[in-house]
């Protein structure tokens, strides 16, 4: 049963016996609280909402459709519900608890003003299909955020509706497809560097393209010559992440764009790492044709345990005419219009590739992102990028003597520091460092990504960390590197102090249990 | 700046530690001609919390919120009462500010919630299993069509005319690029849904039929008959539910033969939010599990043998499988799934049934009252909490005029189907537990004045 790590030890459990204190009868240990499934707590007939009785029976026409059995879902009263979820919440690490240095994911502080603004009834309690005369403020929010995104990136237009980063990638590639169709060209290859996020090749395939990989240089950059050699009449475009997933800026970006344009293709930039350069450089000045912006990364809308995200896509003059419906447009009289299928021609947008989502995109994320942007302003956003880059370089230089940093020998990194597991004692790996960080009270960094580095550890501290906080993290990371080099076996069974020890992922996948069987 | 902890002294000390003369030394890889010399011109500088709040509140105040007027809109987004504890709990920082649970030892809170959510969705839909959420109902619908094509190895999808037109648009947009064949049927103002027309389109090349239940005009298709016809030709039935509260009253699609059930979960816990973020629900038969899109949470044990949860079957997903993944989806709607799950936990199965009964009763009261207005016809023979009225004139104008009179009076079919003929007199009206008798009377009085004139 304990196949994952039968040799593990657990001081937190052992101490109970050693100190002469018996194990508890509840299975809880002080503030370490276990929590059953809601279905194991609940009972039929319990309800946490007072609902009045219906004053009439179902209509006759409905009789043949009525549900024969209610869904077997036991309910909980309000106090039981609040306690259930509060106890569960305590089994999560979160940016509110400490550093969460997941490279590429950008876990920065989520200001609570953003939450408060998103909950104003004028934003939160508005239906997407209300007459436009009743929602001018909502349209202004979308339009105001759109203008910030265009100005910060130096691009021509922006598609606001994509629901997350990967959805934004799809939007960008569909714009490229539509532009090629308009030119009457059937180009079917998208070039993607080896170091790309998995979403890039997945999106290209999802949009009907064939993916061709291009290699990296030994310095962790796109190999410009190899890329040029791959260009040709079949190539629709490239997807480049900049700053890239090794945490480095692509210095040849403009040359890459020029070469791709020369060959008749388009340049898609994965903007997942825009937070490193916001206010410092504009992608539009580097020849980018389309780039998604993860509002949940750069502009601090909360990650929420896996979404919702929001992925507006800024577009060049060449691609903007093909962007999706609906969008907002401000006319000279200052009025913001909602442009949909029926009035697209009035706004000279007849070449749109169509609609990607049912309504207008992630309004709740737009209000949060705009609140964040207005709070920082143009000067603050620039400082955000500078602090994020400074923090990452500080981690890089303070740890590179104990953990090799393969791509940062010659120069600085951007917003994330990339280390490899080379040099650890035999049998020790990145996983041991990551799980050791959990015991140290930190969330681990991104591990085993990018794939171009063996045992990659990608540390993104963000601008949220203070110097004192970074110093504590660095001390822990150094200590773990030393222990792994010295062959400290206890690392293999880490974490010892988390709500759970290492989980058996093989068993989970072999015979999947995806719903409660009770 | 209130969100940036580094002081000037910290910055100077850190630069010295790493041997950089200035922060610009860290941006040396950015070509000099592309580097901006200072903050971008023409954009405002940072602002205090109070100033930002003032600006945003002024924008919010320009909108008419649903709670401030008699409100009867539905069409894929519904106004339900969300218990106060839901919003409190989703704002706990441990949920709000956590990432996707890639380190399961310190993410059991999120993972157990996802496991409970998957169970709730499966039981609500009557499917064997469900995933950990998609972006929204419309994108879940497209993903279901792609999945049906993988399962059946066929590429023709038939869309019922009762499918929400935006969902249909999303499907047709995506299919342009994947070359899947999509057969769309024209929506007509008939009392019965288009079951027979859908069945007539099914042939040996059909991968799936996509049927909304209840449909966009509030009618209720006979899923059993369609499922039988689809299965006879080796096709799957994809049922689309845009109002999950309905499943507290009418039979679950999975119990009627649907192979894949997708839906929009916004009704439970999420709120209107001008269209997003919403919550894509996705359930299906267990035998299709390896063809499913999106994240899945599964039960397992830890090294001490304790029950725990992990993300599983990730070999379907983009971060492992790259261009061969079942979908490109990465971020989903985790926090909305949490809100949905909490709301459904508060309700329980019996609470949901009660809520559904009240919704249906309010809708009956609304339809009976509006149907008494001279010139107004009720289209539906059956409906749950939403039905279609046929007015004596263009419903779109009527909706605009109602708004001027302070009533948010439904969704005109002209707005939903801008290019379709023969639907412009249709008005889709919805009622929920939030609809009061006074709201209905105000709506009816104003509508009657508009259509018939002020009584002498």
Automatic annotation (TrEMBL), chain A:
SUPFAM superfamilies: PLP-dependent transferases (SSF53383)
Pfam families the record matches: Aminotran_5 (PF00266), GcvP2_C (PF21478)
KW Amino-acid biosynthesis (keyword) present: no
Keyword Oxidoreductase: yes
Limits of the Aminotransferase class V domain: 182-304
Region (Disordered) residue spans: 1-21
EC primary class: oxidoreductase
Keyword terms, alphabetized: Oxidoreductase, Pyridoxal phosphate
Glycine dehydrogenase C-terminal domain residues: 386-485
Reactions it catalyzes: N(6)-[(R)-lipoyl]-L-lysyl-[glycine-cleavage complex H protein] + glycine + H(+) = N(6)-[(R)-S(8)-aminomethyldihydrolipoyl]-L-lysyl-[glycine-cleavage complex H protein] + CO2
Entry's EC annotation: 1.4.4.2
Function of the molecule: The glycine cleavage system catalyzes the degradation of glycine. The P protein binds the alpha-amino group of glycine through its pyridoxal phosphate cofactor; CO(2) is released and the remaining methylamine moiety is then transferred to the lipoamide cofactor of the H protein.
UniProt cross-references to PANTHER family, sorted A to Z: GLYCINE DEHYDROGENASE (DECARBOXYLATING), MITOCHONDRIAL, GLYCINE DEHYDROGENASE, DECARBOXYLATING
Name of this protein: glycine dehydrogenase (aminomethyl-transferring)
Gene: gcvPB
From TrEMBL, chain B:
EC numbers for this chain: 1.4.4.2
Swiss-Prot/TrEMBL keywords: Oxidoreductase
Oxidoreductase keyword on record: yes
Glycine cleavage system P-protein N-terminal domain ranges (all copies): 1-443
Catalytic activity reported: N(6)-[(R)-lipoyl]-L-lysyl-[glycine-cleavage complex H protein] + glycine + H(+) = N(6)-[(R)-S(8)-aminomethyldihydrolipoyl]-L-lysyl-[glycine-cleavage complex H protein] + CO2
Pfam families: GDC-P
Source organism, top-level taxon: Bacteria
InterPro entries in alphabetical order: GcvPA, GDC-P_N, GDC_P, PyrdxlP-dep_Trfase, PyrdxlP-dep_Trfase_major, PyrdxlP-dep_Trfase_small
Gene3D superfamilies associated with the record: Aspartate Aminotransferase, domain 1 (3.90.1150.10), Type I PLP-dependent aspartate aminotransferase-like (Major domain) (3.40.640.10)
Oxidoreductase listed as a keyword: yes
Role: The glycine cleavage system catalyzes the degradation of glycine. The P protein binds the alpha-amino group of glycine through its pyridoxal phosphate cofactor; CO(2) is released and the remaining methylamine moiety is then transferred to the lipoamide cofactor of the H protein.
Family designation: Belongs to the GcvP family. N-terminal subunit subfamily.
Oligomeric and partner information: The glycine cleavage system is composed of four proteins: P, T, L and H. In this organism, the P 'protein' is a heterodimer of two subunits.
Name of the featured protein: Probable glycine dehydrogenase (decarboxylating) subunit 1
Gene name tied to this protein: gcvPA
